[in-house]
Write a structure and sequence with these properties.
With 234 residues, the protein is mainly alpha-helical. Helix content is 52%, strand content 9%. The protein contains 10 helices and 5 strands; from the N terminus they run αβαααβαααβββααα. A hairpin with a 5-residue loop joins β3 and β4. It starts with 18 loop residues before the first helix and ends in a 7-residue tail after the last helix.
Length: 234
């Protein structure tokens, strides 16, 4: 079935950015790069959104006053940080571009990536750096000396696990960061599938359909393990 086209008002006529705007911003940035792998943080996306707001129908970017740029940057960064728009946008871009994307935490930008050659950075990441660079769920701060936190210049605490940006990979990449992310996703998917099957078993015990499903599910985890990228040999 053909999907109906969705006509959206241009960003210049809306008050809030949505996932498709973020996807468009990432796409515009990537057209100017030599190709993946590429690293983008939320500031990169927000800056591109500012340019999109000032781009007319002919594709010409109009003048941007400094105070307007600063205000829009703050507004966009807040929305990218405090809503699911950023995640929605990069997942949309991943689906349309068919390029694998790994979200990375603040740790990656603070302690791993320093505007150096991204291929060299990715190739030399240690296992600990890979683990710390992947985003984590929100946690409650119990001890300010905890290694998961560090103070910034304003005296506030920075949570390393928050998503701060993305790494865009090429197809068939065997980078260890990508493998670690896909391994986590495969493990989570396997757990969710098995949990659903247990619920089905409670709802319909001793049924042939559920027993057949259990047999099929048992082979999912080994199949996903085989499908993961092969580990890169540093």
């Amino acid at each position: 079935m053909n999907k109906l086209p969705i006509n959206r008002h241009p960003l210049t006529k809306r008050q809030h950015i949505i996932g498709s705007d973020v996807s468009d911003a990432i796409s515009r940035i990537m057209t100017r790069k030599s190709g993946p792998p590429a690293v983008l943080d939320k500031n990169d996306v927000a800056n591109e959104l500012v340019l999109m707001v000032h781009t007319n129908a002919e594709g010409i970017i109009g003048p941007i006053m400094p105070i307007v740029r600063a205000t829009l940057m703050q507004t966009f960064i807040n929305r990218l940080t405090n809503t699911a728009v950023f995640q929605s946008g990069y997942k949309r871009y991943e689906e349309t571009s068919k390029r694998p994307i790994v979200p990375v935490s603040e740790f990656f930008f603070m302690h791993v990536y320093e505007e150096a050659d991204i291929e060299s950075v990715l190739a030399t990441m240690s296992d600990d750096e890979v683990k710390s660079s992947l985003p984590k769920g929100p946690t409650k701060m119990r001890d300010p000396k905890d290694k998961s936190y560090t103070q910034n210049e304003d005296g506030g605490y920075v949570i390393y696990g928050k998503i701060a940006g993305i790494v865009i990979f090429s197809k068939n990449s065997n980078d260890n960061l990508l493998r670690a992310w896909l391994t986590r996703r495969a493990s989570n998917a396997d757990g969710q599938i098995k949990s659903t099957v247990r619920s089905l078993e409670h709802a319909r015990p001793n049924t042939t359909a559920v027993e057949n499903l259990k047999e099929r599910v048992a082979s999912v985890r080994p199949a996903m393990q085989k499908a993961l990228p092969k580990p890169r040999q540093n």
